[in-house]
Automatic annotation (TrEMBL):
Protein name: UDP-sulfoquinovose synthase
UniProt cross-references to InterPro entries, sorted A to Z: Epimerase_deHydtase, NAD(P)-bd_dom_sf
Superkingdom to which the source organism belongs: Bacteria
A UniProt-annotated Pfam family: Epimerase
Gene3D superfamilies reported in the protein's UniProt record: NAD(P)-binding Rossmann-like Domain, UDP-galactose 4-epimerase, domain 1
Domain (NAD-dependent epimerase/dehydratase): residue spans on this chain: 3-291
Family indicated by similarity: Belongs to the NAD(P)-dependent epimerase/dehydratase family.
Database matches in CDD domains: SQD1_like_SDR_e (cd05255)
Organism of this sequence: Lentibacillus persicus
Length: 382
């Protein structure tokens, strides 16, 4: 298949592009490099040193003989996107290219507006581009489990059957997102639902959980292929952030009581889920939703797991329950369906001490790169 990976220079996109290329697909990347610019804006960095995208794809071609074409540009520039679609005529368009940090979207008015403009406008352009130039192309869009929030009933995969006043219908599952970033994903989901209905576009929304790990078989082939790894308060996500904190002797920063429960998955499962979605496309006009996570943990549980492994590795670690900078429930019911990807063949890589240990040992090699001022939370929801 010809597959475009938009956001292919990012944490999920880069290993996905390599994996799809290795599987024999003809892959190209769209990215505007804004994630690297945001590192400069926040005076932050990836824990792992990362090569330029040009160096990355050149090394991949040298090692495997496989070309990954690069289109450096912005999805919000329709003239640019249109030319790429006309050139590539993709069978699938994998859309990772959004501003993905909840704290970044909550910094101030400008960052909220940027997040929603970038994400919603970019996705609208992709929808129009597919309609106008490649109507059969399958949109594989990264959503988030955070779209659902934490309702007091089980979370279904996109849709719920409701009986009301004696009548029944299957309706989109209610969305109660917890940041302006998560709201941008909900707006995207609504726009995609509508475009599928009116234009017959085929789309899969992957409501992804929090991704941990950094390596895949492909990124480990050479240091130039190394994936980025975020640890700062704005882009670092639970588990990866805790592992890095334990490696530098910092307290593990659990926000509030730590009972916040979320879905998680290994980066090795992210790349496989994208392959599964691509190989099993949605029908024309279908807006399909998969919940893309493999296990549920509370933030407090994860901190305990990391503390145990760090101690076994000889690093004394303290868990610190900070005042919660976010507005969220800290103890709540959480139970979410995630059977559709497994029914299509996903075999999850589950989290155990050895997985944490492997990430920990990689992190130790780069711990001198950590900018310590960036570890404590600085963005407040209020
Ligand atoms: P990332 O920030 O590392 O990568 C996103 C990439 O998209 C970056 O390389 C950035 O430069 C690019 N980009 C952003 N806006 C663009 C635009 N307008 N035009 C072109 N390129 C643009 O993020 P990630 O962690 O790889 O996440 C990828 C996707 O997966 C996001 O949509 C995110 O919301 C979703 N997701 C991620 C996680 C996670 O834990 N990392 C969890 C759930 C969902």
């Amino acid at each position: 298949m010809n597959i475009i990976v938009a956001g292919g220079d990012g944490f999920c996109g880069w290993p996905t592009a390599l994996y799809l290329s290795k599987q024999g697909h003809d892959v190209s990347i769209i990215d505007n490099m804004v994630r690297r610019d945001i590192d400069n804006e926040l005076h932050s960095n990836s824990l792992t040193p990362i090569a330029t995208l040009g160096e990355r794809v050149a090394k991949w071609e040298e090692l495997t003989g496989r070309e990954i074409r690069v289109y450096e540009g912005d999805l919000t520039h329709y003239d640019f996107l249109r030319e790429v679609l006309k050139q590539e005529k993709p069978d699938a368009f994998v859309h990772f290219a959004e501003q993905r940090s909840a704290p970044y979207s909550m910094i101030d008015r400008e960052h909220t507006v940027y997040t929603q403009t970038n994400n919603v406008e970019g996705t609208l352009n992709v929808l129009y581009g597919i309609k106008e130039f490649v109507p059969d192309c399958h949109l594989i869009k990264l959503g988030t489990m955070g779209e659902y929030g934490t309702p007091n009933i089980p979370i279904e995969e996109g849709y719920i059957e409701i009986e009301h006043k004696g009548r029944k219908d299957v309706l989109p599952y209610p969305k109660q997102p917890g940041s302006f970033y998560h709201l941008s994903k909900v707006h995207d989901s609504h726009n995609i639902t509508f475009a599928c209905k009116i234009w017959g576009i085929r789309a899969t929304d992957l409501n992804q959980g929090i991704v941990y790990g950094l390596d895949t078989d492909e990124t480990q082939m050479d240091p130039v292929l190394t994936n980025r790894l975020d640890y700062d308060d704005v882009f670092g996500t639970a588990l990866n952030r805790f592992i890095i904190q334990s490696a530098i002797g910092h307290d593990l920063t659990v926000y509030g009581k730590g009972g916040q429960t979320r879905g998680f998955l290994n980066i090795e499962d992210t790349v496989r889920c994208i392959e599964i979605a691509a190989e099993n496309p949605a029908d024309r006009g279908e807006f399909r939703v998969f919940n893309q996570f493999t296990e549920e943990f509370s933030v407090g549980e994860l901190a305990e797991k990391v503390k145990k492994v760090a101690q076994e590795e000889g690093y004394e670690t303290t868990i610190s329950n900070l005042d919660n900078p976010r507005v969220e429930q800290e103890e709540h019911f959480f139970q979410a369906e995630n059977t559709k990807l497994r029914d299509l063949g996903l075999e999850p890589h589950l989290l155990n001490d050895d997985v944490i240990r492997e990430i920990f040992r990689t992190v130790i090699n780069h711990k001198d790169r950590v900018i310590k001022e960036n570890v404590m939370p600085q963005v407040s929801w209020k």
